[in-house]
Design a protein that fits this description.
There is one protein chain. The chain has 120 residues and is an all-alpha fold. It folds into 2 domains: 80 residues, no CATH class; 30 residues. The protein is built from 7 helices and no strands. Helix 1 runs antiparallel to helix 2, helix 2 crosses helix 4 and helix 4 packs antiparallel against helix 5. The longest helix has 23 residues. The N and C termini lie far apart (54 Å). The model has no long low-confidence stretch (mean pLDDT 85).
């Protein structure tokens, strides 16, 4: 029910209805401490959460949700900037891996290759 109310709030074209739906979702989620149902909506929910906070609705709970959403947004940005180094150099592969790649390129059946790799 919480997810439905959040969806209704996000999709409502009438601001008062959006606020009402979100208020209902907050009232249902707060007693059980639901966080993920709100946070999974990400930044799309932030403006509505700020409106509820400004109106004095479940302020402590809303501030917690906003804090988690913002922290996850920062974490996502950090993860985007991290690059996993990928070596294009054949020297980074073992001789056995190079041999298997040559066999794959030559059309050798991969099922047999897998069995030979596991047993080697």
């Amino acid at each position: 029910m919480i997810g439905i109310r959040i969806g209704q709030a996000l999709n409502s074209s009438i601001p008062d209805n959006a606020l009402r739906f979100l208020t209902e979702a907050l009232a249902m989620g707060k007693p059980e401490g639901f966080i993920r149902a709100f946070v999974d909506q990400g930044t799309a929910l932030v403006p509505l959460l700020r409106r509820t906070n400004d109106k004095g609705i479940e302020q402590e709970y809303v501030r917690k949700l906003l804090s988690v959403i913002e922290a996850e947004g920062r974490r996502r940005e950090i993860m985007k900037t991290k690059r996993v180094p990928v070596s294009g150099s054949p020297e980074s592969l073992s001789q056995r891996e190079l041999e298997l790649l040559r066999l794959v390129a030559a059309g050798y059946p991969t099922g047999k290759l897998l069995n030979s790799y596991v047993s080697a």
